[in-house]
Amino acid sequence: MRLSYPEASYSKSDLDVPFTFNKNSFATNVGLKKMAGQDNYGVNIEYSNLKGTIFLTYKNIDGDSISLMKFIKDAQNFTQKHTIKADEIVEQVYINDERKVYGMFYEVGGNAASQSQFYVTDSVNHFLTGSLYFYTKPNYDSIFPAAKYLEKDIKQIMESVTWK
After folding, report:
1. I want to staple 31 with a disulfide (CB 3.0 to 4.6 A). Which of 11, 44, 120, 134 is the partner?
2. Is the pTM higher than 0.70?
3. Cα dihedral angle (111, 112, 113, 117), rounded to 10 degrees?
């Protein structure tokens, strides 16, 4: 059985947050939640047809290099917790000097709870992390096509992030 998904069509997000990104029109809902702390937000990009969500968390670091290092370490540790179930974790560095976006994308293979995770920052004021989760028990063979489709959306988010 071959699963097919529509060709991705991206448009700029229009949320009241300190960054913009391109989102796929295939997403069925984009929710925004103000979190504890100044300028901290959660954004959920839901794909009900795929029974999955990309969860974004934004934190304002306001020039605090200690907080930045803590957030990066937390993001890396969060990904490494999946090594229990993951067959492999492939890291891909992301650098865009023009837009001042630097980060890491993690592709998690195997029956882990999350197949893709990332973080990006400008290294001074902004930190954004994201994870992909499906509403089903992790079975890599079954969710692989959807995970690959949404991996492209996650990379599009990383590549299109612009800080306000």
Report:
1. 44
2. yes
3. -130
Q: Between β-strands 162-163 and 22-24, what pairing exists: parallel, antiparallel or unpaired?
A: unpaired
Place of tokens 């907080």: 67
Nearest to 68 by CA among 131, 119, 33, 132: 119
The DSSP bridge partners found for residue 108 are: 89
Protein fold of 10-163: Protein Transport Mog1p; Chain A (3.40.1000)
Q: Give the count of beta carbons closer than 10 Å to the beta carbon of residue 89.
A: 16
Predicted confidence at residue 140, as pLDDT, reads 73
Which secondary-structure segment (H or E) carries 152? helix 140-160
The answer for 62, left when phi > 0, alpha when psi is -120 to 50, beta otherwise, is: left
Burial of 76 (0-12, 13-18, 19+ CB in 10 A): middle
Q: What stretch of H or E contains 80?
A: helix 65-80
Residue with tokens 């690959």: 148
Task: Show me where the domains of the chain are located.
Answer: 10-163
Indicate the pairing of strand 41-47 with strand 162-163: unpaired
Written as six digits, the tokens of 134 are 């499906």
**92 within 8 A of 107, measured Cβ to Cβ:** yes
User: Are 22 and 12 in contact, with CB atoms under 8 Å apart?
Assistant: yes
- Measure the CA angle with vertex 107, ends 106 and 112; round to 5°: 110
